[in-house]
Amino acid sequence: MSTTMETLAIRTENKFRTLITKQSYKKGEVICAMPSENIMDKPNRFTVQIARDRHTHVGKLAALNHSCDPNVILDTEKMVMIARRDIEKGEELSFFYPSTEWEMQAPFICLCGASNCIHVVAGARFLPLSTLESHYLNPHIRDLMIELLKNTKQHLKNL
Ligand SMILES: [Zn+2]
Protein backbone atom coordinates (compact mmCIF):
# COMPACT_ATOMS: atom_id res chain seq x y z
CA MET A 1 0.00 0.00 0.00
CA SER A 2 1.21 3.47 -0.85
CA THR A 3 2.29 6.04 1.73
CA THR A 4 3.17 8.57 -0.96
CA MET A 5 -0.36 9.97 -0.75
CA GLU A 6 -0.34 11.27 -4.32
CA THR A 7 -4.15 11.59 -4.23
CA LEU A 8 -3.91 14.12 -1.39
CA ALA A 9 -2.99 17.80 -1.56
CA ILE A 10 -2.30 20.39 1.12
CA ARG A 11 -4.01 23.74 0.66
CA THR A 12 -2.76 26.73 2.67
CA GLU A 13 -4.89 29.81 3.21
CA ASN A 14 -3.86 32.50 5.70
CA LYS A 15 -1.40 30.01 7.21
CA PHE A 16 -4.33 27.60 7.82
CA ARG A 17 -3.62 24.21 6.30
CA THR A 18 -6.24 21.83 4.98
CA LEU A 19 -5.90 18.41 3.39
CA ILE A 20 -7.84 17.99 0.16
CA THR A 21 -8.53 14.81 -1.79
CA LYS A 22 -7.96 14.85 -5.55
CA GLN A 23 -10.24 11.86 -6.06
CA SER A 24 -13.52 10.51 -4.71
CA TYR A 25 -13.81 7.58 -2.28
CA LYS A 26 -16.56 5.21 -1.25
CA LYS A 27 -17.42 4.67 2.41
CA GLY A 28 -15.04 2.09 3.91
CA GLU A 29 -12.40 2.49 1.22
CA VAL A 30 -8.74 2.72 2.31
CA ILE A 31 -7.34 6.08 1.21
CA CYS A 32 -3.70 5.54 2.16
CA ALA A 33 -1.36 3.95 4.67
CA MET A 34 -0.25 6.02 7.66
CA PRO A 35 3.49 6.68 7.81
CA SER A 36 5.17 5.02 10.79
CA GLU A 37 8.91 5.41 10.25
CA ASN A 38 9.38 8.26 12.68
CA ILE A 39 8.08 7.25 16.12
CA MET A 40 8.44 9.36 19.27
CA ASP A 41 7.27 9.15 22.86
CA LYS A 42 5.77 12.67 23.02
CA PRO A 43 3.09 14.24 20.82
CA ASN A 44 3.49 17.38 18.73
CA ARG A 45 1.45 19.05 16.00
CA PHE A 46 2.83 16.73 13.32
CA THR A 47 2.15 13.45 15.14
CA VAL A 48 -0.72 11.04 15.60
CA GLN A 49 -0.88 8.82 18.68
CA ILE A 50 -0.79 5.14 17.72
CA ALA A 51 -0.30 3.50 21.15
CA ARG A 52 0.00 4.47 24.81
CA ASP A 53 3.51 5.93 24.48
CA ARG A 54 3.92 6.05 20.73
CA HIS A 55 3.35 8.98 18.43
CA THR A 56 4.18 8.83 14.76
CA HIS A 57 5.03 11.66 12.39
CA VAL A 58 2.34 11.43 9.71
CA GLY A 59 3.81 13.56 6.93
CA LYS A 60 1.08 15.12 4.77
CA LEU A 61 -1.59 13.75 7.10
CA ALA A 62 -0.50 16.33 9.70
CA ALA A 63 -2.59 18.76 7.62
CA LEU A 64 -5.76 16.85 8.55
CA ASN A 65 -8.02 19.11 10.59
CA HIS A 66 -10.30 17.98 13.39
CA SER A 67 -14.04 17.62 12.89
CA CYS A 68 -16.73 16.38 15.25
CA ASP A 69 -18.48 14.95 12.17
CA PRO A 70 -15.43 13.77 10.21
CA ASN A 71 -15.19 12.08 6.82
CA VAL A 72 -12.16 9.88 7.53
CA ILE A 73 -10.99 7.50 10.26
CA LEU A 74 -7.38 6.86 11.26
CA ASP A 75 -7.09 3.19 12.16
CA THR A 76 -3.92 2.89 14.25
CA GLU A 77 -4.10 -0.92 14.37
CA LYS A 78 -3.98 -1.39 10.60
CA MET A 79 -2.17 1.95 10.16
CA VAL A 80 -4.50 3.17 7.41
CA MET A 81 -6.77 6.11 6.71
CA ILE A 82 -10.30 5.01 5.77
CA ALA A 83 -13.27 6.90 4.31
CA ARG A 84 -15.98 7.17 7.00
CA ARG A 85 -18.56 8.04 4.35
CA ASP A 86 -18.61 8.69 0.60
CA ILE A 87 -16.19 11.52 -0.14
CA GLU A 88 -16.19 13.70 -3.22
CA LYS A 89 -13.19 14.84 -5.21
CA GLY A 90 -12.00 18.21 -3.86
CA GLU A 91 -13.44 17.71 -0.37
CA GLU A 92 -11.43 18.60 2.70
CA LEU A 93 -10.55 15.55 4.79
CA SER A 94 -10.91 15.62 8.58
CA PHE A 95 -10.89 13.19 11.48
CA PHE A 96 -11.97 13.16 15.12
CA TYR A 97 -8.74 13.96 16.99
CA PRO A 98 -9.76 12.26 20.28
CA SER A 99 -10.09 8.97 18.35
CA THR A 100 -6.27 8.80 18.44
CA GLU A 101 -5.15 11.47 20.94
CA TRP A 102 -5.43 10.84 24.68
CA GLU A 103 -4.02 14.16 25.88
CA MET A 104 -3.16 16.79 23.31
CA GLN A 105 -0.18 19.09 23.57
CA ALA A 106 -2.12 22.06 22.15
CA PRO A 107 -5.87 21.99 22.91
CA PHE A 108 -8.17 24.31 20.95
CA ILE A 109 -11.77 25.38 20.56
CA CYS A 110 -13.70 23.62 17.79
CA LEU A 111 -15.96 25.70 15.57
CA CYS A 112 -16.99 22.90 13.22
CA GLY A 113 -20.69 23.65 13.66
CA ALA A 114 -21.73 19.98 13.90
CA SER A 115 -24.75 19.34 16.15
CA ASN A 116 -22.57 16.99 18.22
CA CYS A 117 -19.63 19.43 18.44
CA ILE A 118 -17.47 18.80 21.52
CA HIS A 119 -16.23 22.47 21.52
CA VAL A 120 -13.01 21.86 23.50
CA VAL A 121 -10.62 19.53 21.67
CA ALA A 122 -8.02 18.47 24.23
CA GLY A 123 -7.90 14.69 23.89
CA ALA A 124 -10.08 11.73 24.80
CA ARG A 125 -9.33 11.86 28.52
CA PHE A 126 -11.31 15.10 28.82
CA LEU A 127 -14.47 13.76 27.16
CA PRO A 128 -17.38 11.89 28.74
CA LEU A 129 -17.66 8.23 27.84
CA SER A 130 -21.06 8.83 26.24
CA THR A 131 -19.47 11.27 23.77
CA LEU A 132 -16.54 8.99 22.99
CA GLU A 133 -18.79 6.01 22.39
CA SER A 134 -20.50 7.70 19.46
CA HIS A 135 -17.14 7.83 17.63
CA TYR A 136 -14.66 5.37 16.19
CA LEU A 137 -12.06 4.81 18.92
CA ASN A 138 -8.70 3.15 18.55
CA PRO A 139 -7.74 0.39 21.02
CA HIS A 140 -5.15 2.45 22.92
CA ILE A 141 -7.79 5.13 23.63
CA ARG A 142 -10.27 2.48 24.75
CA ASP A 143 -7.63 0.92 27.07
CA LEU A 144 -6.62 4.27 28.55
CA MET A 145 -10.28 5.17 29.15
CA ILE A 146 -10.94 1.86 30.96
CA GLU A 147 -7.85 2.47 33.08
CA LEU A 148 -8.99 6.00 33.96
CA LEU A 149 -12.45 4.72 34.98
CA LYS A 150 -10.91 2.01 37.17
CA ASN A 151 -8.62 4.54 38.87
CA THR A 152 -11.56 6.87 39.48
CA LYS A 153 -13.55 4.06 41.10
CA GLN A 154 -10.59 3.20 43.27
CA HIS A 155 -10.14 6.82 44.22
CA LEU A 156 -13.82 7.14 45.24
CA LYS A 157 -13.53 3.99 47.34
CA ASN A 158 -10.54 5.47 49.20
CA LEU A 159 -12.26 8.75 50.07
ZN1 LIG B 1 -16.71 20.42 16.59
Mind explaining what this structure looks like?
It is a single chain. It is built from two helices and twelve strands; from the N terminus they run E-E-E-E-E-E-E-E-E-E-E-E-H-H. Strand 5 (47-51) and strand 6 (54-57) form a beta hairpin. It has a single domain, classed as Beta-clip-like. With 159 residues, it is of the alpha+beta class. Zinc ion (ZN) binds at residues 68, 110, 112, 114, 117-118.
SSE topology:
Layout: E1 8-13, E2 16-21, E3 30-33, E4 39-40, E5 47-51, E6 54-57, E7 65-66, E8 72-75, E9 80-83, E10 92-95, E11 108-109, E12 120-121, H1 129-132, H2 139-157
Parallel strand pairs: 7-10
Antiparallel strand pairs: 1-2, 2-10, 3-9, 4-6, 5-6, 8-9, 11-12
Number of domains: 1
Write the CATH homologous superfamily. SET domain
For the sheet with most strands, the description reads:
4 strands, mixed
Mean pLDDT value: 93
Structural class, from secondary structure content? alpha+beta
Distinct small molecules:
zinc ion
**Total helix count?**
2
Poorly predicted residue ranges: none
CATH class: Mainly Beta
User: Into which percentage range does the β-strand content fall?
Assistant: 25-35%
Strand order of the largest sheet: 1-2-10-7
Assign a percent range to the helix content.
10-25%
Q: Provide the CATH topology.
A: Beta-clip-like
Query: Which of globular, elongated, flat, extended, rod-shaped describes the shape?
Result: globular
Using the CA coordinates, give the radius of gyration.
16 Å
What is the CA-CA span between the terminal residues?
Answer: 52 Å
Instruction: Count all strands and give the number.
Output: 12
The topology string of helices and strands comes to: EEEEEEEEEEEEHH
